[in-house]
Amino acid sequence: MIQSNWEKRRRGTITTPRGFVASGLYCGIKKNKKKYDAALVVSRTPAVAAGTFTTNKVKAWPVLYTMKAINAPRHRAYLVSSGNANCVNGPKGKIAVEEAAAEVAKNLKVPVEEILIAQTGLIGAPFPITRFKRAIPRLVRRLSCDGGRSAAKGILTTDLSPKEVALSFPLGKKKVTIAAMSKGAGMVHPNMATMLCFITTDIAITKPLLRRALRHAVDDTFNKMAIDNDMSTNDMVLAMANGQSGVPTIQKIDREYRLFREVLKEVCRIIAYKMAHDGEGVSHVCTLRLSGAKNPTEAEKAARQIANSMLFKTMLAGSDPNWGRIVAALGASGVAFNPKQINISFDDAMVVHHGSLRVLNIPKARKVLQKKGYTIHIVIGKGRGRVEFITTDLTTKYVSINASYS
What we know:
- By secondary structure, the chain is α+β, with helices and mostly antiparallel strands.
- It has two domains: 271 residues, L-amino peptidase D-ALA esterase/amidase, CATH 3.60.70; 119 residues, Ubiquitin-like (UB roll).
- The protein is built from eleven helices and 16 strands.
- The radius of gyration is 22 Å and the shape is globular.
- About 2% of the residues have low confidence.
């Protein structure tokens, strides 16, 4: 939960941290001219950057490009497009990424290695690089401190709405802000998802420590959520820190680093929930809190088995407290547990206590499952392993959306 001394800006954007500007517009990639399909986020001063990337063996050209570019000591911009994944489309896709990076670097008057690129959309189609390059000067001219909302619109595909957050917290006598924007509604399955997430912060931190903090945050949030069972070719999470808050540079794992890491994780957690609620066809979001496993690895394995179960997801879709599907998924997980020690409750409605059904709580549990969001608590023993995992229901609308995506 957000601590009292953290300030949550519900209307905050990717440009809320000091020293960042952004823009977004329609450049001609999508068919619908009313939908933005390009975004640019720029740090006015050089920043350190870190990233995590899809583990899919089929990686889109922008992923391959940015995985190399992220190793530069300094960065200045995220250039993003939506509507075309620029993936599995031949060598021209690779050239398109390089030309786009060169064009934005020329317009910003910065070295090309300081540009990070992300793209998302339909796989296999030729990328319209001419139209995209033509839009880059306009993106640069439109850069402003108020451009965060436009940028958040420019990265969306099947999303119903932008997903943004900004958190501020005191560090010494200064205030530090971390902000994020993301897209992702389908193909959301660790590691990570068909998601793009861009983070900005005005903290000063070394590149290795930013990388370490980002990996920790991603592992505990985006890598513990599932809308469906598919892994994308394009997903990445990128973070830039430009030091404009004026705080001394974090150079070791100390109290300041741990506070930054905690707030960064909370930013990612908020974005993860926003993604789940905006998932394709999603009507219910469920947080699984599983405890009592032998160790955290066993806990995650058990929770993941439940979260990805099609029968469990359809149970959520029907608001049906069929707890037997939870037990069956646990049994299929390969995790050791004693069925007689199981406790299952939907929010505060317990339906299974030490392996026995409490029939009187089933009506109450059904009411819980009719809510948009809720928590299912599962205890499988007396071990110290515990995990929190975000999952969603599976509806006919999801099938409809993806049956005609192209």
